[in-house]
Write the structure tokens for this entry.
Amino acid sequence: QSALTQPPSASGSPGQSVAISCTGSSTDVGGYNYVSWYQQYPGKAPKLIIYEVNKRPSGVPDRFSGSKSGNTASLTVSGLQAEDEADYYCSSYGGNDNFRIFGGGTKLTVL
Amino acid sequence: QITLKESGPTLVKPTQTLTLTCTFSGFSLTTSGVGVGWIRQPPGKALEWLALIYWDDDKRFSPSLKSRLTLTKDTSKNQVFLTMTNMDPVDTATYYCSLGPTFDFWGQGTLVTVSS
């Protein structure tokens, strides 16, 4: 069971856009439209911000968007705000024998 | 309002068995499609999915931990129980339960330390 690959860090200035990638394989990210993204502040529980590749739960700002191409999913945060500074994790369904796989996490810094 | 809360020991010794309880409200584990999952996070490290139990008692386990995990539920008490055998210091982590299968809502987590 290999974790999905995310860059350890990403950064951007307020107002800018930043994209975070999540690379898997044809048996997880590439094989299903069940990619989720979670935001986590230090010492807090993760919060779902994107599910099924590009859907936003109620209450999540539309500055957060998701996409997928082949075996790589991406989270884009537009109009960066200071409050977006957090850790971000992707997750994918991996079939019946590997129900959920998480990425290694990306620390987003707002400069 | 959906809430979940984890409970259990904060300290276990190596080789012991850990049992954690997830007590939830605001949804029913008898509703079709609903599940409760467990995810852990070692200090300073990434999330790791452990297991999930569905409304119909179907269960999914992480392939790397399957032999050590047991999942049960008590729908009358809105509780799910995770048992992990043969605990090791590398299992030290914050353990979360979450509404599945998308993990829309999470508990606050409980830190379990494995040490003699």
The mean pLDDT of chain A is 95.
